[in-house]
Inverse folding.
């Protein structure tokens, strides 16, 4: 019998057996294991009791953890850093989880190291999610003095690096990508130099109480060892030791906040479109999506259950009739995709080769992160909502360097909307309200548009966003809504202009024009009859020839010893000559190279 086969025997089989489970059938007695532990013979000289294996608990992989033991309970250590962008983030050695109390535990011993925080109370600032302003993801952590570790009955040790976090809304594809996958990706990149190696060794533990959900396999792009904390906690006597653990996500990619206590809207970050494309390429690679550059298509993102486009076929035919083209490719061929009935991989593939996508505001538009540069996203808004109310996808498209044209279209015509007061309340229905309140919400449709929103499920917002819409595709003078065809035509033209512009071609050079220091800076002072002559020379920074500088010059700053004033000069040459006063005998000199305005580190020398 193999080692894994022995590991998966039931408790009853082990406790009733009197002989070794090894395939050699030796006469070595089988040790009786405690409740919940399984026998495994590692070699002829050693037999151990291991933690029980539920197939859904560790995915059948005994390499997740080490021997269940109460011996050698190591003290906890922590290294933290805090930033405005991401908040407090910490790296722990030997962080414990107490199943009985449902808390993480810091075992404070004489050998504990604490760095980056003033005291352990500051660990209360640790946050398990990337979602700004939500209070459901604060860590529950207690301290256990090291002298009392004898209360621990059984410790299961997780080997390798572990990332611990919580999922916000794992049933919503937008929240999965924006709140979970993107921050996890940039966090893992910090401590995993090779993502392929990490895929074999990294543990990811989720603390939330949600079900795994339809998108569980997306989290397994990072590692096959993804678990929920509540799946581990089946025995209240068990403690878990995460030997090398990271808590606190890198939030550089969080471009949007959902309005917890403030109006929802963009988050000011330095997150670049190139970073988003890097992540999109990672996802495509993990899912096996191949990029097709031979031709580009147009995609209508369809919704079959709610927020429907009433004249969907008419819209597709009308866009097709525009005979649009991008670059030198053939005309854009329209196709319809849906996440409700389709496969996410297929939708990502369709978006990856799309020159144009059209869809009603909703979570599936997050797949727009896979659009190629120069493409167009047209977001359709139901009646009575201003696009500024929830500009999450506008913000994504307008990330610096992402280069996707964003265009909102709003239904301005009441006769082209169908609302649904009989829907369930979470789909905008009103039946849970008194009749007077229902009438008030319906009448409000023809009042002001909905603008600023706070989180999360306001009645008016849900009632309006779950309307069905007839999209204007003609030139009916009786309609207030602009024809979506005009917006699409203009957007595709803008995409063409963008792709042919120098600004786009030089996009990825913009932030790379950082010259090094000038080299071999030398100077000397030559005294003449009535003055002193300064002569300085240097060699260009070594990387200038690779930076494609349109304008290269040098700033020279000098100060006579014993004087407070500085004098600045600019030159395009690698030499500098200046006549000074007769009594100047010592001079400090600084030279900075500027490539299209980007400064190098400053070089210094003393002139004598």
């Amino acid at each position: 019998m193999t080692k894994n086969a022995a590991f998966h025997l039931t408790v009853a089989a082990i406790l009733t057996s009197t002989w070794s489970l090894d395939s050699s059938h030796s006469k070595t007695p089988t040790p009786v294991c405690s409740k919940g532990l399984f026998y495994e013979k590692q070699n002829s000289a050693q037999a151990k009791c291991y933690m029980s294996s539920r197939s859904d608990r560790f995915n059948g992989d005994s390499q997740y953890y080490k021997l269940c033991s109460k011996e050698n309970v190591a003290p906890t250590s922590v290294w933290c850093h805090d930033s405005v962008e991401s908040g407090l983030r910490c790296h722990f050695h030997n962080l414990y989880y107490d199943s009985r109390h449902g808390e993480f535990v810091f075992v404070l011993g004489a050998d504990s190291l604490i760095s980056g925080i003033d005291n352990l109370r500051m660990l209360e600032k640790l946050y398990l999610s990337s979602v700004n302003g939500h209070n459901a993801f604060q860590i529950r952590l207690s301290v256990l003095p090291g002298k009392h570790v004898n209360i621990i009955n059984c410790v299961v040790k997780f080997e390798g690096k572990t990332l611990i976090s919580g999922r916000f809304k794992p049933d919503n594809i937008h929240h999965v990508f924006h709140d979970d996958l993107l921050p996890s990706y940039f966090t893992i990149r910090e401590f995993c130099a090779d993502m392929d190696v990490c895929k074999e060794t990294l543990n990811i533990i989720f603390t939330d109480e949600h079900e795994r959900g339809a998108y569980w396999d997306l989290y397994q792009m990072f590692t096959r060892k993804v678990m929920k904390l509540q799946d581990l906690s089946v025995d209240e006597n068990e403690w878990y030791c995460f030997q090398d653990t990271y808590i606190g996500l890198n939030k550089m990619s969080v471009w949007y906040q959902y309005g917890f206590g403030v109006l929802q809207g963009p988050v000011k970050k330095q997150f670049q479109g190139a970073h988003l494309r890097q992540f999109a390429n990672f996802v495509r690679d993990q899912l096996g999506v191949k990029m097709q550059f031979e031709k580009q298509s147009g995609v209508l993102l369809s919704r079959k259950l709610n927020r429907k486009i009433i004249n969907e076929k008419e819209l597709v035919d009308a866009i097709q009739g525009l005979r649009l083209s991008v670059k030198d490719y053939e005309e854009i061929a329209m196709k319809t995709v849906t996440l409700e009935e389709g496969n996410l991989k297929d939708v990502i593939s369709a978006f990856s080769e799309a020159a144009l996508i059209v869809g009603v505001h909703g979570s599936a538009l997050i797949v727009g992160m896979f659009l190629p540069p120069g493409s167009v996203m047209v977001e359709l808004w139901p009646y009575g909502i201003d696009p500024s109310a929830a500009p999450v996808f506008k913000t994504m498209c307008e990330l610096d360097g992402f280069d996707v044209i964003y265009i909102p279209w709003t239904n301005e015509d009441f006769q082209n909307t169908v609302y649904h007061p009989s829907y369930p309340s979470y789909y905008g229905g009103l039946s849970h309200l008194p009749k007077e309140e229902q009438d008030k919400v319906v009448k409000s449709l023809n009042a002001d548009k909905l603008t600023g929103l706070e989180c999360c499920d306001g009645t008016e917002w849900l009632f309006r966003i779950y309307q069905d819409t007839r999209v204007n595709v003609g030139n009916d003078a009786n309609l207030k809504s602009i024809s979506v065809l005009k917006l699409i035509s203009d957007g595709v033209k803008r995409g063409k202009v963008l792709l042919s512009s120098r600004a786009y071609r030089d996009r990825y050079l913009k932030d790379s024009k950082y010259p090094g220091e000038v080299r071999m800076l030398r100077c000397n002072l030559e005294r003449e009859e009535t003055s002193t002559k300064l002569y300085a020379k240097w060699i260009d920074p070594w990387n200038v020839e690779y930076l494609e500088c349109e304008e290269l010059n040098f700033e020279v700053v000098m100060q006579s010893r014993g004087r407070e004033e500085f004098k600045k000069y600019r030159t395009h040459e690698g030499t500098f000559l200046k006549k000074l006063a007769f009594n100047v005998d010592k001079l400090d000199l600084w030279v900075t190279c500027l490539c299209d305005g980007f400064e190098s580190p400053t070089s210094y020398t003393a002139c004598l």
